[in-house]
Specification:
- Helix 3 runs parallel beside helix 4, helix 4 packs across helix 15 and helix 12 runs parallel beside helix 13.
- The protein is α/β, with parallel strands linked by helices and 301 residues long.
- The protein is built from 15 helices and twelve strands.
- Strand 1, helix 2 and strand 2 form a beta-alpha-beta unit.
- It has three domains: 100 residues, Rossmann fold (3-Layer(aba) Sandwich), CATH 3.40.50.10800; 84 residues, 3-Layer(aba) Sandwich (Rossmann fold); 86 residues, Rossmann fold.
- The longest helix is centred in the last third of the chain and has 17 residues.
- The structure holds iron/sulfur cluster.
């Protein structure tokens, strides 16, 4: 297809690398130099020697790549690809919670905007929330914005987790992926192993065989001998899994779609490469937000 060849030519001319999140639509995943979860994409962003990073994910991910690489130009093909959950935790709310809990540490999910991250002691991803909470010496940890990830962390740590805000959630996992959907898949595929993301409701996590981030799901599909998997996360994760394991079967919850992740298209990628407008994070915010991200990357090595 001409359009794809033009994209590849522009990519070559700009010396760009394409980092693509596991929830991107198949036609975008197929263009990736690297496809992965937030933690893996952070590492790739930090290690690349490309001049441009074309990031197919949502706003906070592109910001993270820019914070980790102030010398590179980060492109987000559709600038309206914003994670609603990240928008649920303004920096002001983190500062207020700190005032109310002066002895607590702050661990924020990577799904937050740079201003909020700048207020954190440590960042975590869905691959390492418990590890990050336990890495801090404080007994109480302010944790946000996802209440379901907070529930998962509380289940596995002896520390006291205080949610900030109280009711943050990802609509894809919390509202579009319900226990009844997973139960219906279980009834249809009784031998399938259930993999669930920790952004899912607790009642979904409770009927899962494994609760994992998407990077963990890739490993589980590889390690486990099972041939069938029910995948309780964003639907297009199954495309990624099937591509890596064509001899296995992966069953998605069809309604579990993240509309923001689907905003990027080959056409928009072409546009972004044709007239590059890099994502900007204010220098003083980027400097403060880098510390908790960098600390997480060091602790999770
Ligand atoms: S899947 Fe949920 S957490 Fe991830 S970008 Fe979409 S809305 Fe945000």
């Amino acid at each position: 297809m001409d359009g794809i060849n033009e994209i590849l030519a522009l990519k070559r001319d700009l010396n760009a690398v394409f980092l693509v999140h596991n929830y991107q639509p198949p036609e975008v995943q197929d263009l990736a130099d690297f496809c992965g979860d937030s933690l893996e994409l952070c590492r790739h962003a930090q290690e690349t020697d490309a001049d441009y990073i074309l990031f197919c994910g949502v706003d906070f991910m592109a910001e993270c790549a820019a914070i980790l690489n102030p010398d590179k130009k980060v492109l987000l093909p559709d600038r309206e690809a914003r994670c609603p959950m990240a928008g649920m935790l303004p920096a002001e709310e983190v500062r207020k919670a700190r005032e109310e809990h002066p002895d607590a540490a702050v661990v924020l999910y990577i799904n937050t905007l740079a201003e909020a991250k700048a207020e954190a002691d440590l960042v975590c991803t869905s691959a390492n929330p418990v590890e990050m909470v336990d890495a801090l010496k404080e007994r109480t940890v302010l944790f946000g914005p996802d209440k379901n990830l907070a529930w998962f962390a509380q289940k596995h740590t002896r520390k006291k987790i205080v949610r900030v805000p109280d009711d943050g959630y990802c609509y894809t996992h919390h509202l579009r992926l319900l226990r009844k959907d997973v139960e219906a898949l279980k009834a249809a595929h009784p031998n399938a192993v259930v993999l669930a993301h920790p952004e899912c409701n607790p009642d979904v996590q409770e009927i899962a065989d494994r609760v994992l981030g998407t990077g963990g799901m890739m490993h589980a599909a590889h390690e486990l001998r099972a041939r069938e998997f029910i995948v309780a996360t964003e639907k297009d994760m199954c495309y990624r899994l099937k591509k890596a394991h064509p001899h296995k079967e992966f069953y998605p919850v069809e309604s579990a779609v993240c509309d923001q992740m689907k905003k990027h298209t080959p056409f928009k990628i072409h546009e972004a490469l044709s007239s590059p407008e890099p994502v900007r994070v204010e220098r003083h915010i980027a400097k403060k937000a880098l510390r908790p991200i960098q600390r997480m990357l060091e602790l999770s090595e």
